[in-house]
Amino acid sequence: MIFLKALVAIVLGYLIGSIPFGYLTVRLIKRKDLREVGSGSTGATNVSRVLGKSGFALVSLLDIGKGVAAVLIASAIAGCPVISWVPIAAGMSSAIGHTYPVWLRFKGGKGVNTTLGAAVVVFPIGAAVSVAVFLLVALTTHFVSAGSLSSGIAFLIALAIANIIGYKTPLPLWVMGFFVPTMIIFTHRDNIGRLKAGRENPFGRENK
Question: Total structural domains in the chain?
Answer without folding.
Answer: 1
